[in-house]
């Protein structure tokens, strides 16, 4: 199937009110252009350098999402380039985003990444660390938290659903509370293999790469 066919199929599967983020990491501009011509305006990248290269050579009305792990020394490259940072995963990173975006008199929109499966191989804060990072966000002037992002452990449909349910409970708990810099609007969970279950459990944004572009070419792009 072509990229256009894939997108049309996804649009039939993804209900109104759930955003499709096309994960374009490692994909060439030609593939992004085909997705763009099919109406996609939100693209997700893992690495800062690849995102910057694509920003420079692609349409100005695209909203770029940084969905990969973000190192503190790369934050400075994202000012005026990124629409949403999905991977706010530590107070150290939060403080650097606040410093860099404050210096530029800009506001960074972010999602708190929770390590819902408590996997050592994945970044993200643990559930018991939430209150600490929320307190730190509330002291910021240049960072807004718009929701939560999770990457769940690999598993079967039943275990996937449990992780999504657990994340949704956290999302709903925070949504009911009154914060200055936190507004729970986006629940970013679900990828190509499990987005249907994620949507059933309340996801408002699904990150789909292979389902849009086909299998990845891992030889494209580099890190800055």
From TrEMBL:
Similarity annotation: Belongs to the pyridoxal phosphate-binding protein YggS/PROSC family.
Example of a GO MF term: pyridoxal phosphate binding
SUPFAM superfamilies on file: PLP-binding barrel
Superkingdom to which the source organism belongs: Bacteria
Domain Alanine racemase N-terminal: start-end pairs: 2-215
Pfam families, A to Z: Ala_racemase_N (PF01168)
NCBIfam families (UniProt xref): YggS family pyridoxal phosphate-dependent enzyme
Location of N6-(pyridoxal phosphate)lysine modifications: 25
Source species of the chain: Clostridium uliginosum
Alphabetical UniProt keywords: Pyridoxal phosphate
Cofactor or coenzyme needed: pyridoxal 5'-phosphate
Protein name (database record): Pyridoxal phosphate homeostasis protein
PANTHER family: PROLINE SYNTHETASE CO-TRANSCRIBED BACTERIAL HOMOLOG PROTEIN, PYRIDOXAL PHOSPHATE HOMEOSTASIS PROTEIN
Signal peptide: none
């Amino acid at each position: 199937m072509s990229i256009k066919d894939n997108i049309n199929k996804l649009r039939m599967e993804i209900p109104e009110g759930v955003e499709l983020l096309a994960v374009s990491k490692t994909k060439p501009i030609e593939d992004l252009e085909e997705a763009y011509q099919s109406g996609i305006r939100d693209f997700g990248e893992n690495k800062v350098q690849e995102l910057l290269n694509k920003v420079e050579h692609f349409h100005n009305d695209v909203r770029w999402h940084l969905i990969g792990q973000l190192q503190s020394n790369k934050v400075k490259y994202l000012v005026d380039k990124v629409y949403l940072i999905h991977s706010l995963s530590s107070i150290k990173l939060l403080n650097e985003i606040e410093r860099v975006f404050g210096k530029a008199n800009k506001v960074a929109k972010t999602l708190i990444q929770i390590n819902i499966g408590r996997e050592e191989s994945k970044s993200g804060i643990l559930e018991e660390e939430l209150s600490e990072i929320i307190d730190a966000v509330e002291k910021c002037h240049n960072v807004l938290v718009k929701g939560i992002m999770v990457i769940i452990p690999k598993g079967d449909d039943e275990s996937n659903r449990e992780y999504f349910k657990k994340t949704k409970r956290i999302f709903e708990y925070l949504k009911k509370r009154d914060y200055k810099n936190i507004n729970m609007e986006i629940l970013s969970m679900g990828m190509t293999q499990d987005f249907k279950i994620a949507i059933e459990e309340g996801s408002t944004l699904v990150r789909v790469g292979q389902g849009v572009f086909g299998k990845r070419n891992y030889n494209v792009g580099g890190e800055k």
